[in-house]
Write a structure and sequence with these properties.
Elements: E1 3-8, E2 14-18, E3 38-40, H1 68-71
Antiparallel strand pairs: 1-2, 1-3
Protein name: Putative regulatory protein FmdB zinc ribbon domain-containing protein
Pfam family, one: Zn_ribbon_8
InterPro entries: Regulatory_FmdB_Zinc_ribbon
């Protein structure tokens, strides 16, 4: 089962929940306030951009190249 990220429209709480692939959004309940009015968030799984403090410009983690085609990865 995948983990999805949600934001509660009532209280603004952001949370993650393990859900079946065919989950019903109306069944998801905010763990903070108990409301069933939530919105699925865009998840950037595995992204390491400059705004998150990750590496910038590197194409892969095993070398310092800016393009994976130049190192064969």
């Amino acid at each position: 089962m995948p983990i999805y990220e949600f934001t509660c429209k009532s209280c603004g709480h952001e949370f993650e929940k393990l859900c079946r692939v065919d989950y019903n959004l109306k069944e998801i309940q905010c763990p903070k306030c108990g409301a069933n009015d939530v919105r699925k968030r865009l998840s950037l799984f595995g992204y390491k951009g400059s705004s998150t403090g990750g590496s910038t410009g590197s194409g892969c983690s095993s070398c310092s190249s800016t393009s994976c085609s130049s190192c064969g990865h």
